[in-house]
Amino acid sequence: MTAMTLRHYETPLLKTPFHPRTEALNKLWAWGNWGGYTTVLSFDDLAMEHSAIRNSASVYDLCPMIKYRIEGPDATAFLDRLTIRNVAKLSVGGVQYTVWANDAGHMLDDGTLFRLEANRYRLCCQERHLNWLSDSAFGFDVVITEETEDIAALSVQGPTSAEILRIAGFDVSALKPFRMAEFPLGKGRLMISRTGFTGDLGYELWTTPDQALPLWDLLFEAGKLHGIRAIGSEALNMARLEAGLIITGIDFTPADVCLREDRLRSPLEMGLGWMIDWQKGHFTGKAALMAQRDVGMKWSFVGLEIGGNISAEGAILYHNKKTEAGVITGAIWSPVLKKNIALAQVLTKYADGANIWAEIYALRELHYEKMMMQAHVIDRPFFVHDRRRATPPGKF
Amino acid sequence: MPSFDTIIIGAGPNGLAAAYRLATKGAKVLLLEAGAIAGGGANGLAHLSYNLDPRVLSEMGLPKLGLAWADSELATTALSPDGKHLRLEGALAERISGEVSAADRKAWAALRGRLLRFAKVLSPLNQMTPPRIAKGADTPLFKLGMIGLKARIMGAKNFRELGRILLTNVFDLLEDEISDPRLKGALAFDAVLGGWAGPRSPNSVLPWLVRLSGQTLGVQGAIGLPKGGMAAIGAVMVKAVADKGVELRCNARVARILVEGEKVAGVMLEGGEDLRADRVVSSLAPKTTLLSLVGARHLDAGMTTRARHQKSRGGAARLSLVLKALPDFMGANPKDRLVIAGSDRDVELAFNPVKYGRVPERPALEIVIPTAHEPAKDGMHRVSIVAQFAPHAPADREAARKAMLAACLSQLETHAPGIGKLVTSAEILMPYDIEDQFGLPGGNWHAGELSVEQMLFLRPMPGIAQYKGPVPGLWLASAGCHPGGGISGSAGWNAALAMEAAE
User: Across the interface, which of A77, A82, A103 has its CB nearest the CB of B303?
Assistant: First the structure.
């Protein structure tokens, strides 16, 4: 994947193991840079791609997700000290959504932690953290390996995803949410976890790069009667907003790159306090988080429903249409909910949502129209469906 | 089994000072010492006193308990191989005898006055908890304001001069004013004693000012030699704490600090014995305390990294000679503190190879002959030497030790011909030997380099500069904390005051 030539700088973006297939399907030629990789923003029709997530099955190339292998006798102790959740409670074959913070309790990243064996884990996240992980490893008998390029990963999400996997030869009907199972694939192995970023029934598939193209072809052959469709990052972003999930660097600025002190956010301020295990013993940032818990936090993270049908992306929020109260970090008009939804950082004193207004600018044929639309704080996820948790999944 | 509310690890001057202060305020203190006797660096590492804390001296009643001085204002002779020595008498070379130009005498008198004045302005810092920058930290703004005011009251000219020289280097400072190489050499050597810096290293003036803020019997800049040697200071401090009911246990090396429920619960000794107390005060180096005794899993990752990165390189070797007779340094008074520094340039040249892990050909030496003051019963003479600079992490420790000893003996022979034949035994401690014997990381005298970037709110490291450790119940009272090392007890005393303030 990283075969470098002397002129590599002329093509700085890397290609994922699925690139031959994504390139062939990319009718709009809409490419984006995700973590240094050439990735598809939208293949052909954004509405149809989003529809596939909610109505049939979508396939998304996950390879640029950063992955670390963490192994050794102290792996669990290391991860318990690194992250805010209780890792000891995660059983082998389980997956945990998690967060880690610095000494000041400010968020560095979120990610998913896979317990592959008793003393072997995989941590998947948005940003690169080898330095933080290595520094955190001092005093622990643990080996940390960056394995982003050693793994090819796809996300298969949507109501027909389980059925497509069954047809492809992978019976995942017994797999519960946040569990994983392993299958043979060609000369290699395929690990399937019931995880995803859509809030829907869905799976993430993990294999070696040499198995990438055969896996893709197998899935598309298996799914041709079940509405399988490749999707780009734009459709996924819509689905994750409907699911109320956050993205590092978009919904908060990670502490290690954040320049402005007042932009740092703790897990409490990002609405993730429910994950903190205060009883598990020491972890990095705990003292700071306890102090914040006791004093109260300045910022809160909320879901909003906003009037009208113009997406409030990036809008400033006001209390009583006058006083700045926060900012919207992500917003769409949801095709599934037929509602205008948003995620927002709001000053805690306004987080009850009374009298909050979003300043939206609608560009209509080269003229902006400014609108003050009332925003109501509502529970996340915005989109909930029983099929997300149903085991075994429904048949199609 | 008696119960204690406070366990202090390390019975060096800081551990003893903290123990005394806490015991007088009613604490039940157990003082643990890894070695066979208490005293820490006073037993065989430091050989002169320059900054014994006046609070420790008077409040612990050390003179009444028997602390006396062979000389409380030791003169220095800057040795020259041709016998044309300079004798620097009084505190910080107040008077100079020997061949020095009138211009140099005048320039030195002015510079000396400024240095002592600046050091005096800064000296209250030694006796206070350092400020912290963090919001909500208890920063002694009034005391800082007073120091600032006193600095400003010196007048615009002096205030500007303090600002100019504060972060400059010793070599340039001396070169601006003085031309005599022997004088510059002796002063440059004093300035960098115990540091990992040559005269030309950036910011070498400030550590010198810190050194000059110390005193002996109320005389700023004076160097003292206690009767019975430096170990006498440790011995009287032990008497003082015993009078206050502190229990001292020697040969009790702490294996780790017990942390239970995210609070300090006591210590475990190397033999496996658990000793319980809600408060543990470590006068060991902060690096050792945090990384070896507490352990990373009880600390935040960033704090652990800062502890790992704290610079702690020692540049001084310690040489002890036994001689059949008193050596003759070409007529120099053997009771003086004898300095072989050559010139400021020579001191810098002695530092250069150390940067690359090698041994200098001509190390600078500070020589004290205690038996010239108090004859030994066996009639032999003891010569105690600090040799700078010595590498703290050479590729081959054994070879470096041999080379360093040979280089020191060669320097001695040049300045006292025939001394080699008098030597009956020679023992040298390289910085790594000092680390092994005294537990000072890298063999650094200050248990963490005393350099600008590791001072005040940055000492021992950001976030824990006010003696309170990162685990509830843990306190740091080491030379690695503000204001640094020497046989002073200042950090221990300050730490005890911080504990009182926190109650």
Answer: A103
pLDDT tens digits along B102-152: 999 999 999 999 999 999 999 999 999 998 888 778 888 888 999 999 999
* pLDDT tens by residue, B424-458: 999 999 999 999 999 999 999 999 999 999 999 99
A202 within 8 A of A20, measured Cβ to Cβ = no
CB A125 within 8 A of CB A111: yes
Q: Could you tell me which residues come within 8 angstroms of residue B70 by beta carbon, excluding any fewer than 6 positions away?
A: B225, B226, B227, B370, B373, B374
> What's the rounded Cα separation, in Å, for the pair B473 and B266?
9
* pTM for this predicted structure: 0.93
A34 φ/ψ angles, rounded to the nearest 5 degrees: -120, 110
- Among residues A106, A12, A339, the alpha carbon closest in space to that of B301 is found at A106
Distance of CA A262 to the CA centre of its chain: 24
Beta bridge partner(s), residue B8: B31, B281
What is the C-alpha to C-alpha distance for residues B439 and B40, in angstroms, rounded to an integer?
A: 9
Going by C-beta distance under 8 Å and a sequence separation of 6 or more, which residues neighbour residue A292?
A105, A266, A268, A269
Enumerate residues 236 to 295 of chain A having a beta carbon within 8 A of any beta carbon in chain B.
281-282, 284-287
**Per-domain boundaries in chain A:** 13-63+151-231, 298-383
Q: How far apart are CA B466 and CA B481, in angstroms?
A: 8
Average pLDDT along chain A: 96
Closest CB to A281 among B262, B308, B470: B262
**Distance between CA atoms of A396 and B37, rounded to whole angstroms?**
82
CA A37 to each of CA A16, A131, A154, A167, B493: distance values in angstroms, whole numbers, following the listed order: 7, 21, 15, 31, 58
Q: Which of B259, B262, B308 lies closest to A138 in CB terms?
A: B308
Q: Which ipTM was obtained for this model?
A: 0.93
Between chain A and chain B, the number of residue pairs with CB atoms below 8 A apart is 47
Confidence of residue A1 (pLDDT cuts 50, 70, 90): very low
Percent of the residues in chain A that have a pLDDT greater than 90, as a whole number:
95
- Beta carbons of B296 and A284 less than 8 Å apart: no
CATH class of A13-63+151-231: alpha beta
Regarding the domain delimited by A298-383, which CATH topology (the fold level of the hierarchy) does it fall under?
A: Elongation Factor Tu (Ef-tu); domain 3 (2.40.30)
Residue among B390, B387, B379 nearest B338 (CA):
B387
* pLDDT at residue A2, rounded to an integer: 52
The answer to whether B260 faces chain A, any CB pair under 8 Å, is no
Closest CA to A45 of A24, A27, A22, A21: A27
| Nearest alpha carbon to residue B10 among B499, B481, B503 | B481
Domains of chain B: 6-69+227-311+442-502 (3.50.50.60), 104-223 (no CATH), 316-438 (3.30.519)
pLDDT tens-digit series, residues A175-232: 999 999 999 999 999 999 999 999 999 999 999 999 999 999 999 999 999 999 999 9
Q: Which residues of chain B have pLDDT under 70?
A: 1-2
Residue B297 to residue A138, Cβ atoms within 8 A? no
Query: In sequence order, which ranges of A100-230 are alpha helices (DSSP H)?
Result: 130-136, 161-167, 212-222
**Torsion angle, CA of A258/A264/A268/A272, rounded to 10 degrees?**
-30
pLDDT at B503: 85
Q: Which amino acid would we find at residue B280?
A: V
Q: What is the pLDDT of residue B131?
A: 87
User: What is the least distance, in Å, from the CA of A326 to any CA of chain B?
Assistant: 24
CA distance B51 to chain A (A): 36
Q: Which residues are within 8 A (CB) of B259 and not within 5 positions of it... i.e. 6 or more apart?
A: A282, B265, B294, B295, B298, B471
Q: Give me the pLDDT at residue A3, please.
A: 55
Whether B220 and B212 have beta carbons less than 8 Å apart is answered as yes
